[in-house]
Amino acid sequence: GRAQASEKVTVFAAASLKNALDKVTAVWEKETGHESVTSYAASSALAKQIEAGAPADIFISADMDWMDYLAGKNLIKPDSRKNLLGNRIVLIASRDRSDPVKIEKGFDLVTLLGGGRLAMGSVDSVPAGKYGKAALEFLGVWRFVADRVAGAESVRAALLLVSRGEAPYGIVYQTDAAADKGVTVVGTFPEDSHPAIIYPIALLDESKNADAASLVDFIRSDRAAPFFEMQGFTVLR
Amino acid sequence: MTLNFEANLTLGKFALDVTFTSGRGVTALFGRSGSGKTSIIRVIAGLARPEKGMLVFDGDTLVDTNRGIFVPKHMRRFGYIFQEGRLFPHLTVQQNLNYGRWFNRKPKESDELAKIVELLGIGPLLERRPGKLSGGEKQRVAIGRALLSSPRLLLMDEPLAALDEARKAEVLPYLEVLRDEMKLPIIYVSHSVSEVARLADRVIVIDDGRVAMAGAASEVLSQPLISVAADRREAGTLVEGKVLNYDAKHKLVTVGLKKSSIQIAGTEVAIGKDVRVHILARDVILSTVRPEQLSALNILAGSITAVRGDDAGTVDIHVDCGGTPILARITELSYERLALQQGMPVFAIIKTVALESL
Amino acid sequence: MTLNFEANLTLGKFALDVTFTSGRGVTALFGRSGSGKTSIIRVIAGLARPEKGMLVFDGDTLVDTNRGIFVPKHMRRFGYIFQEGRLFPHLTVQQNLNYGRWFNRKPKESDELAKIVELLGIGPLLERRPGKLSGGEKQRVAIGRALLSSPRLLLMDEPLAALDEARKAEVLPYLEVLRDEMKLPIIYVSHSVSEVARLADRVIVIDDGRVAMAGAASEVLSQPLISVAADRREAGTLVEGKVLNYDAKHKLVTVGLKKSSIQIAGTEVAIGKDVRVHILARDVILSTVRPEQLSALNILAGSITAVRGDDAGTVDIHVDCGGTPILARITELSYERLALQQGMPVFAIIKTVALESL
Amino acid sequence: MSWFSLTNDEWTAVHLSLRIASVAMLASLPLGILVALLLARGRFWGKSLLNGLVHLPLILPPVVTGFMLLLLFGRRGPIGTLLADQFGIILSFRWTGAALACGVMGFPLMVRSIRLSIEAVDRGLEDAAGTLGASPMWVFATVTLPLILPGIIAGMILSFAKAMGEFGATITFVSNIPGETQTLSSAIYSFLQVPGGDAAAFRLTIVSVIISMAALLASEFMAYYVGRRVDVE
Amino acid sequence: MSWFSLTNDEWTAVHLSLRIASVAMLASLPLGILVALLLARGRFWGKSLLNGLVHLPLILPPVVTGFMLLLLFGRRGPIGTLLADQFGIILSFRWTGAALACGVMGFPLMVRSIRLSIEAVDRGLEDAAGTLGASPMWVFATVTLPLILPGIIAGMILSFAKAMGEFGATITFVSNIPGETQTLSSAIYSFLQVPGGDAAAFRLTIVSVIISMAALLASEFMAYYVGRRVDVE
Ligand SMILES: Nc1ncnc2c1ncn2[C@@H]1O[C@H](COP(=O)(O)OP(=O)(O)OP(=O)(O)O)[C@@H](O)[C@H]1O
Ligand SMILES: Nc1ncnc2c1ncn2[C@@H]1O[C@H](COP(=O)(O)OP(=O)(O)OP(=O)(O)O)[C@@H](O)[C@H]1O
Ligand code: MOO
Ligand SMILES: [Mg+2]
Ligand SMILES: [Mg+2]
């Protein structure tokens, strides 16, 4: 029941953080004896749930937009908001075409695709898709490949499209690319080619749980950093 | 008990417009296929709502379209034996039989069940479901189910059509018991004149949605018009009388008519009981002289009141035997040979065993 | 044409073990409710598969469990009139009637349809769906549907039970036409002795899943044992003869028997035609002297061959009238009064119109 | 740890899924029967509207259904507030909310099955029961209900199976809180969102399939048993 | 731009959704009827297995179904390769693939409805047709099929509605390419993923609901028409 759970710290976190964050909270629980639960879902869903009064203490979003959305409605404690993690987007190819690609202004992605599609998160909705589109626009490639994009429901789905050979190339987070043996990272997008990829963290305005702040601190601490870095995130300080 | 029925009902191109009154005992609905018998029964049972009409049972208004009264079917307590069985397929025979008893304030004693099961010969079927019964078995269970629901009125739509003659001969006396001892009024649809003759007190002949004839069974069954619905061969007269004597040795019942008497083979009946005898016209032989040494026991003297020929080579002769009308159907040839005429004295010879037993 | 039937079939506790042969004409299956008649028909139609058995129609093996032969139902071309109608609810009456014709190589001419519609009186119903028919109307459509499917054999399971007598009287002659002119063999289940007497060439009496009696209709219907299945009142003899004469004026047919002749009211029949006459025992009066001035035309001289009493107050007297056996059922009282004995000469009086017409 | 043994959290998810699917199925059953009856037999204004409403969860993307539930039944939603104030019932972010979401998602499937069965019932049998003295309620209980049992069973199994597979509406409405609202389906979804989660997702999928197959087999057996009783011929 | 007018892309999504839902429904119908027949009437080894298989898309989270479709029907999947090599049929990133996904997701719903109807058919009528000379094929076409029409209609509408609401399996299998595989559902989903997208999502939801309601009404009318013909009493 809710009674015990309310003593637990409840974290609402973007689904892509699961691997690292599960380990981090486990360590925190062990060290402090407190308890926590984490609900992983799409940032959009989590933000709307928080808006609807979800009993969460901490929110970690996969992009700035949904955190801004909550901030605009005064649903987070403004001073608790911090940029937690950074990420990079990379160009991946299916195993059979592992030649590195030099990603620069005007690089010939169309030829590389050779009639195939470019798999990435949906460019309107999935954060990785948005960043990918921004990068391609910055590099002047977007208008050539816009109609070749296959927008997936998540980065993971985009990854799968490439690893299954549906699409020859794809744009995903480096965190995701690292774990899949079916794909090769053939290039990394320059950091200045897209808005910074940032996972912000914040305490929620309605949170009354005294342990929540301690967990946020721990997540941002050096103790937690290696778990995130192991997954390929950049820890922002 | 009386049932006043008055209803207008339209079913597609068919229009029912029927008014009748039925009293205690059995009222037979007689009529050709498609004439509207089942429709009438459905209105009585509350399964069809007349557009205009009135139904009163024993002072209890069940339907009155003017006043907007319509008593729903489950409050009427009329047992209905459907033309097509309608057993509950998910219940065993036993559960089907007991179904109506659950809903009755005055449940019949359980030996009532045993008795009806015995009568209908459905003992071995009790555990079975209707899907595994033969046609006649289904019909028998349907009869039992209706009888056991303690109805105030029994609606029977060709209940015996699927039964063999032997079984019919067992069930009919039970219906008579219901009628006479339980005083259960019955509305009975049948195509069989002999069934009707035996059971019915009143007969209503329906033709194309209208009442063609109605009246006491003895009247109606003696009308030639009955042949709209029945076989010509079953025309005859229904005679009422009282049991005068029972000869146990010869198993003969003597029935006293107006001024004469006839003898009928049969089992013991209480002396003084009112009975009815259906004498088929085709079973009556006429003679101009008193016959001798005949095996026929019943020889009634009378005189010819009317002669009516038809175009099938037969002539119907109406004979008045001391106040009791008897109809005889003879061939035209005999009619000519015997030179029969209205007013002539004749002897009507009726074979004893040709009579409907009581 | 012959049908050899031999089947073992178990349905729950019921075991069918029947062997019979039926030839041209009508074979009647007779038996009490639940005796297994429908089960036999189902095996013939291919709706039930016997555990062990053999079915050969005109040399054409339809079922042989030993050799693993089982011709499916749609290849047998046996028309089946079901006990419960089974009309297609989604088709109009007309479409129901035509259904079987679609599947026939040799479709009946369309005036065949008109004729059958006329005969069954279903003309006004053609556009309707079965849900909107009365019970008898459904049954009539089912009869029409089977007749129109150009069957090689007709299986009729109590086809006339729901019909009024007048309609029956119209349909029966048509069945006779099918039997005689179309040479269509028919297997006919009925509880009515008079129907069977009129139609059947062979009668097979089924009792509890077994053949209790089988043989020519005239033989079987004269047996007292037939009363397992039939009303006692319908016992009698089936007599075969040839039409000798037709008196158009009096509409009288003279039928020649072995050494005598009888007269029957009826419509014109071809002279020389073989006919059968069912004489009910209860319609025969015996006299020890030749009666005079009687309206009964048929008075046959004969002698008593056997006397058999029962415990219902009646005595069955078997009389041989010049080689033609006649059964008379009289009361015990008359039996005593007339002092009848075996070997005694008597006169059998049969009312003309009491005879089954042809 | 053997490949197949489940972690504690996973066991919890299994329990929770079973509980949620069963409750969703059972709790929506009475309403499902009622609505099916109304749609099959009723003649009233707004019947098409009711019919449309019932089908909505099928027509809408599950996420939309989830959002609608959140808006209506959430802590701040009109119905949510009402339930909380009047009856102390809180659905949001509780397993009960997950059951509501699953029940709603399975509702059109349940109603359709039951409705089809009701439409196939021979009204003549109900009439017969009426003439034997059974009031409409009793007719329903003793004749209609047993006869539509196959449809009810089909509806229940569809609802149960849907509840096992549902996550779009659930995760949107009540989030994905382990031990509270995390069903097998949402757990599978979470695993699929992270690198290397495929094996775990696959394992849970197998568990989910096994549970549902068992339910399916049980339902088939029940339907067979029911059907055998009513078997014609 | 008035509040309600749709953009070009949105119109495309509407067209595409209609096409995909209709094709999914119609293409799965013959197989649906066949499988329903097998399940209702067949007696064969592996019937439970087939039954389980049919229900899988209901039991599995749609994303998993999408993955499986990708594994099987994708460019490198066994069936996908076969189809591409032998028949030149490519499903990946095509609207046909979306139709496949929707058809698969709606399949259990369609089969259940049809199966329920088949189980309610009076076998006696089929026997009667047989004795009148109709071969099993003809019996099916002229008796069984017309009698199960209500179930078929119900199955079709469920499949259609499901196709309108489906996006989990579709987006996973064939992605979300405007003009090719982006259905109304996936468009709605996309809008919901961005802050401020609610209004647009709501607008498309209304469109989707209107379409589905029209289909629903049409189906009800058809069912009424069919039912009236077969009406008993
Ligand atoms: N599926 C079944 N399971 C068990 N017993 C059955 C089944 N079907 C029929 N029976 C039994 O088999 C016997 C023969 O049935 P059948 O239908 O052949 O009788 P019938 O002679 O046609 O009777 P009726 O004149 O009443 O129609 C009956 O006693 C019946 O109870
Ligand atoms: N739903 C209906 N729509 C149109 N006509 C109907 C409907 N139901 C019955 N009829 C017609 O009404 C008439 C009377 O039907 P009803 O069932 O009362 O006849 P019935 O006297 O019981 O006949 P049967 O002896 O054949 O059972 C018939 O002509 C029938 O065709
Ligand atoms: O309706 Mo879904 O796409 O099975 O959760
Ligand atoms: Mg009737
Ligand atoms: Mg039978």
From TrEMBL, chains B, C:
This is Molybdenum ABC transporter ATP-binding protein. Pfam families: ABC_tran, TOBE. PROSITE patterns: ABC_TRANSPORTER_1 (PS00211), ABC_TRANSPORTER_2 (PS50893), MOP (PS51866). The keyword Transferase does not apply. The lineage of its organism: Bacteria, Pseudomonadati, Pseudomonadota, Alphaproteobacteria, Hyphomicrobiales. NCBIfam families: modC_ABC. Residues 293-358 form the Mop domain. GO terms for molecular function: ABC-type transporter activity; ATP binding; ATP hydrolysis activity; molybdate ion transmembrane transporter activity. The keyword Transmembrane does not apply.
From TrEMBL, chains D, E:
Keywords: Cell inner membrane, Cell membrane, Membrane, Molybdenum, Transmembrane, Transmembrane helix, Transport. It is a multi-pass membrane protein. The chain crosses the membrane at residues 20-40, 52-73, 93-111, 132-158, 200-226. GO terms for cellular component: plasma membrane. GO terms for molecular function: molybdate ion transmembrane transporter activity. Residues 14-217 form the ABC transmembrane type-1 domain. The keyword Transmembrane applies. SUPFAM superfamilies: MetI-like (SSF161098). Pfam families: BPD_transp_1. It is found in: Cell inner membrane; Cell membrane. PROSITE patterns: ABC_TM1 (PS50928). Belongs to the binding-protein-dependent transport system permease family. CysTW subfamily. Part of the binding-protein-dependent transport system for molybdenum; probably responsible for the translocation of the substrate across the membrane. This is Molybdenum transport system permease. It comes from Phyllobacterium endophyticum.
